[in-house]
């Protein structure tokens, strides 16, 4: 599964326990039980959120669920100080802070991730209040046949909501779904190029965004290669995209192996399966079953402002996490506003330093021959 810039809707799929710490008066209010609230994303999508809290000796413990996304949850820490509740989820760069009312029934606060802040209010359920049903854990759909020549059975293409933050493209079950994606974003993903490698496109190619939702005509869940083929056919059919290729030398970033070798864990995932590349926040990337070429592709499409060339010589699939402090040149392509630079002493290093320290890979600015797509023809999408 690929997540690119989907900062507000990417939840780490791990069960967790929230440790609750307190300062000041010890649990002046009883906050054990079930809390429910709805997070409304910038694209107007509503995500029902549940926190279940119980006592464990002198401490409180809880489990948090985003029940419209996954039956599993996120690890984090809750701090209770007087009437203020704070939730920190470091792995996903998420925070929540709210105030309890005098009855301990309503918690009014703000959810923050990736520089975005959204209101999120919870209600403490009483014995007669209905609880939202928890989602069942379902087996993943079967993979599409390896020899399939996939295409969409049908695909809805709609203009995105103006002013929407972030953008994403993923496989949800068998559906391929995107939000707030300009055509430039789709082309860079499916053809493995950066926006600087696209020549001759009209202005709307990068300024008008669309939401896609479609299912393949073939049975099973597509892998990454099949997903790209489907979107390539969609671009040719619905956008009338025609182009030709040539090589040009231009400024690029090159990924090389560090002198001490890689610091990467071999993945136990299916090497033929989809890689998982997601951002828990700006500068917080998690990768599962990913090649360095996959990693380079996400850096190129979502983070950096020029092509990224993989010259590491590594051809395996890896699981890793990468944490860095972005600069003002990064993440412009995913339409997310960077927060002010952190002045914390323990803030992560810059991207190049983080890659060398955490992955054993060097990121080098250099001139390199890269493939360029020259647009011959493109139109705005045909009707659904």
Account of the protein in words:
With 384 residues, the chain is mostly beta strands. The protein folds into 2 domains: 107 residues, Lipocalin (Beta Barrel); 217 residues, no CATH class. The chain is 13% helix and 41% strand. It is built from 5 helices and 21 strands. A 9-stranded mixed barrel has the order 1-4-3-2-9-8-7-6-5. The chain has a 4-stranded antiparallel beta sheet with strand order 10-14-12-11. It has a 4-stranded mixed beta sheet with strand order 13-21-15-19. The N terminus is likely disordered.
Which percent bin holds the helix content?
Answer: 10-25%
Radius of gyration: 22 Å
Q: What is the total domain count? A: 2
Q: What is the tally of helical segments?
A: 5
Low-pLDDT parts are 1-27
Q: What letter string, H or E per element, gives the SSE order? A: EEEEEEEEEEEEHEHEHEEEEHEEHE
User: What is the number of beta strands?
Assistant: 21
Largest sheet: 9 strands, mixed, barrel
Overall pLDDT metric? 83
Class by helix and strand content? mainly beta
- Beta-strand portion reads 35-45%
* First-residue to last-residue Cα separation: 26 Å
Strand order of the largest sheet: 1-4-3-2-9-8-7-6-5
Name the overall outline: globular
């Amino acid at each position: 599964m690929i997540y690119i810039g989907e900062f507000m809707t990417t939840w780490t799929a791990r069960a967790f326990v929230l440790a609750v710490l307190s300062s000041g008066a010890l649990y002046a209010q009883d906050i054990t039980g079930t809390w429910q609230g709805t997070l409304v994303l910038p694209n107007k999508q509503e995500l029902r959120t549940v926190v279940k809290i119980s006592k464990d000796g002198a401490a409180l413990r809880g489990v948090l669920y985003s029940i419209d996304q996954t039956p599993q949850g996120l690890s984090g820490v809750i701090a209770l100080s007087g009437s203020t509740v704070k939730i920190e989820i470091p792995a996903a760069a998420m925070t929540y802070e709210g105030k309890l009312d005098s009855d301990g029934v309503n918690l009014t606060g703000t959810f923050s991730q990736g520089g975005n802040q959204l209101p999120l209010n919870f209600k403490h359920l009483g014995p007669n209040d209905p609880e939202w049903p928890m989602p069942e854990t379902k087996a993943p759909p079967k993979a599409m046949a390896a020899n399939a020549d996939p295409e969409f059975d049908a695909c809805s293409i709609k203009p995105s909501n103006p002013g929407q933050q972030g953008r994403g493209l993923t496989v949800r079950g068998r559906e391929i779904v995107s939000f707030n994606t300009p055509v430039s974003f789709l082309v860079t993903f499916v053809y493995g190029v950066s926006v600087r490698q696209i020549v001759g496109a009209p202005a709307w190619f990068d300024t008008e965004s669309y939401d896609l939702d479609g299912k393949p005509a073939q049975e099973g869940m597509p892998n990454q290669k099949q997903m790209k083929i489907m979107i390539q056919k969609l671009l040719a059919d619905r956008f009338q995209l025609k182009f030709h290729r040539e090589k040009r030398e231009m400024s690029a970033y090159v990924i090389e192996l560090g002198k001490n070798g890689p610091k990467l864990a071999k993945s136990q995932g299916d090497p033929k399966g989809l890689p998982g590349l997601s951002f828990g926040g700006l500068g917080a990337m998690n990768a599962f079953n990913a090649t360095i070429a996959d990693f380079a592709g996400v850096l190129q499409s979502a983070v950096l402002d020029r092509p990224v060339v993989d010259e590491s010589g590594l051809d395996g699939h890896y699981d890793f996490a990468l944490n860095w402090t972005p600069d003002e040149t990064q993440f412009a392509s995913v339409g997310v506003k960077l927060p002010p630079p952190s002045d914390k002493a323990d803030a992560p290093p810059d991207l190049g330093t983080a890659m060398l320290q955490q992955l054993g890979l060097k990121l080098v600015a250099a001139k390199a021959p890269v493939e360029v797509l020259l647009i011959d023809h493109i139109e705005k999408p045909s009707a659904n």
